[in-house]
Amino acid sequence: MIEYHEPLFRPPAEANSLIIQITLGCSYNRCSFCSMYETKKFKIKDIDEIKYEIDELSYYQDIRRVFLADGDALTCDINFLIEILNYLKKTFPKLQRISSYASPYNLLEKTQEELDLLREHGLSLVYYGIETGNHELLKYINKPMNPEKMIEGLNKATKANMKISATVILGLGGKKLSIPHIEETAKLINKCEHINYLSTLQLGLSDSKEESFFHRFEKKNQKFIFCNDQDMLEEQKRFISLIKPKKPIIFRSNHASNALPLKGTLPKDKEILLEILNLALENNHILRPKFLRGF
User: Fold this and answer.
1) Under 8 Å CB-to-CB from 68, ≥6 apart: which residues?
2) What SS3 class is residue 238?
3) Number of domains forming the structure of the chain
4) Rounded to an integer, what distance in angstroms lies between the CA atom of residue 171 and that of residue 184?
5) Kind plus residue range of the DSSP H or E element containing 67
6) Fewer beta carbons below 10 Å: N end or C end of the chain?
7) How many CA atoms lie within 13 A of 73 on its CB side?
8) Minimal CA–CA distance to 129: which of 84, 74, 53, 178?
9) Contact 98, 124 (CB under 8 A)
């Protein structure tokens, strides 16, 4: 058996997938809210080591899904990635889906032709952290990406026929920036050609990240004030009400960080979701207890 380089993260939807680490850590690793890979130095693993690990797992002939870890597989060279994709398909004959995280940076760096090739060779789903569509807030959290560039990268993935699972962080702007955070994020999503899956998380900071997170707001003369459960529900309500996608989106807020699990398809289930949120705002007893929440 192979030994994973801990800590190991994967999206909730990949719980039953085989995880293959082709990189360690994240090549950017400077987002002020994220502690996932703070203990790791970024590295692209040797391709012979990756193939050896795939061979070690080859007796799992019924594998249908593979997730490429860690946080930044798409930063790898196109030929490197294609060689791995082909080796996975050869090793696991029943393989139906290969997925990975995608950052705003590496979607933009890959050409349309390169993304087309990755899809052709089996990469069919990417997980993408939007976090917020507000340009100033992206700077505050040290993820200085123009929202229009995010849309450009996401549309490139859609054009390559890749499915996109995107996440947004509720409460990321605190009480003071709540409205622009939500309104600009909904606007970004509405401009995208197609986000297949959309989920919301609630902001949670590890002890190691709190000081630097707050400091970046203070440098902009903004005191960060955490949103409480009611604020989060109001954000979720505003967010869902503003989403008018070009194509249907499967929506989820069932991550363990959320006070209120929700699921539906937008825009079809918008009114039902808003009714549930109104009920939760009136009766907080239906919220997930805080001791059951986490990352």
Assistant:
1) 20, 22, 84, 98, 99, 100, 123
2) helix
3) 1
4) 14
5) strand 65-69
6) N
7) 28
8) 74
9) yes
Range of the domain at 129: 12-292
CA pair distance 32, 137, nearest whole angstrom: 11
3-state secondary structure 78-95: HHHHHHHHHHHHHHCCCC
The pLDDT, as a whole number, for residue 250 is 98
Q: How far is CA 193 from CA 110, 150, 160, 246, 293, in A?
A: 18, 12, 12, 6, 33
pLDDT of residue 221: 73
Amino acid identity at 134? N
Q: What region, left, alpha or beta, does residue 137 occupy, with left being phi > 0 and alpha being psi -120 to 50 degrees?
A: alpha
Say if residue 56 is exposed, middle or buried (CB neighbours under 10 Å; 0-12, 13-18, 19+).
exposed
Residue 257 domain flag: yes
Model confidence pLDDT, tens digit, residues 12-56? 899 999 999 999 999 899 999 989 899 999 999 999 999 999 999
* Alpha-carbon 101 to chain mean position: 7
**Gyration radius of the chain over CA positions:** 19
Q: Which two tokens stand for residue 106?
A: 């590496």
* Residue 43: inside a domain: yes
Nearest to 198 by CA among 155, 163, 237, 147: 163
Strand bridging mode 249-252 / 263-266: antiparallel
Coil, strand or helix at 216: helix
Lowest-confidence region among 92-106, 188-202, 243-257: 243-257
**Predicted confidence (pLDDT) per residue in 103-142, tens digit:** 999 999 999 999 999 999 999 999 999 999 999 999 999 9
Work out the average pLDDT over 172-192. 97
Question: What CATH number has the domain bearing residue 124?
Answer: 3.80.30.20
In angstroms, rounded to a whole number, what is the distance separating the alpha carbons of residues 102 and 128? 5
Residue 140 domain flag: yes
Which pLDDT value is given to residue 3?
A: 85
Give the pair of three-digit tokens for residue 208: 């190691």
